[in-house]
């Protein structure tokens, strides 16, 4: 299917599009949950759990690029009779979700590489240590924390919108991403 022209793309996205979506949704929720646990962990035990947080977050960053490629090449926006303003808002919400999806790991990586000590990632590898760069470390941590409530509110809105399409409008929006719902809606 790679190299598919627009006319070859079916009503349903290529399987990789929902696959990326669900794998990354799980990873984002996991990174968020570990991040919350981390905040309540005593300092002396924090480094280990931070390593797992970083590993999950770095996986999000790595998968982001093939996902964007798959969405752009192997899928197209769902056909809808939603008002124009709703379609624009949905695109803006997806755009901001992409921004935090990539912004969280990048700011996390900046924060951890400018903290001034070696940082082991789940016993697998170490992040580069650029020495202590106070202003950059603080700024990256602030932006990282700023993105968190944006992520949470948009994901809540996003899930409500998906359920609204499925339950109230009975359209294909959710079925495009949940193949076993397709019989009922096609
Ligand atoms: C999808 C990716 C990520 C998500 C959803 C995420 C989420 C979070 C959350 C919820 C917190 C707790 C913040 C708070 O309660 O105020 C946090 C803190 C933190 N995260 Fe992430 N994170 C991600 C990726 C990363 C990565 C890749 C790194 C580093 C390599 C990282 C490094 C940190 C650090 C250093 C903190 C502590 C900040 C502080 O103590 O103020 N994060 N993150
Ligand atoms: C139970 C949870 C979720 C449900 C039911 C859900 C449902 C959906 C549906 C139905 C679409 C297609 C929308 C369309 O075609 O216009 C979609 C797309 C999208 N979702 Fe979710 N989603 C969930 C969780 C998440 C999470 C946790 C994130 C990210 C943090 C996320 C980010 C996105 C993005 C960026 C898109 C745009 C298209 C794409 O990249 O595949 N979703 N979601």
Automatic annotation (TrEMBL):
Domain Cytochrome b561 bacterial/Ni-hydrogenase: 17-178
Main location group: membrane
Cofactor: heme b
Keyword Zinc: no
Alphabetical UniProt keywords: Cell membrane, Electron transport, Heme, Iron, Membrane, Metal-binding, Transmembrane, Transmembrane helix, Transport
Xref: InterPro entries: Cyt_b561_bac/Ni-Hgenase (IPR011577), Cytochrome_b561_oxidase (IPR052168), Di-haem_cyt_TM (IPR016174)
Membrane topology: Multi-pass membrane protein
Highest taxon, organism lineage: Bacteria
GO molecular function terms listed in the Swiss-Prot or TrEMBL record: electron transfer activity; heme binding; metal ion binding
Coiled-coil intervals: none
Subcellular location: Cell membrane
Keyword Electron transport assigned: yes
Transmembrane segments: 20-38, 50-72, 92-115, 146-167
GO biological process terms on file: respiratory electron transport chain
Cellular-component GO terms for this entry: plasma membrane
Family, similarity comment: Belongs to the cytochrome b561 family.
Protein name: Cytochrome b561 bacterial/Ni-hydrogenase domain-containing protein
Species whose genome carries this gene: Thalassospira alkalitolerans
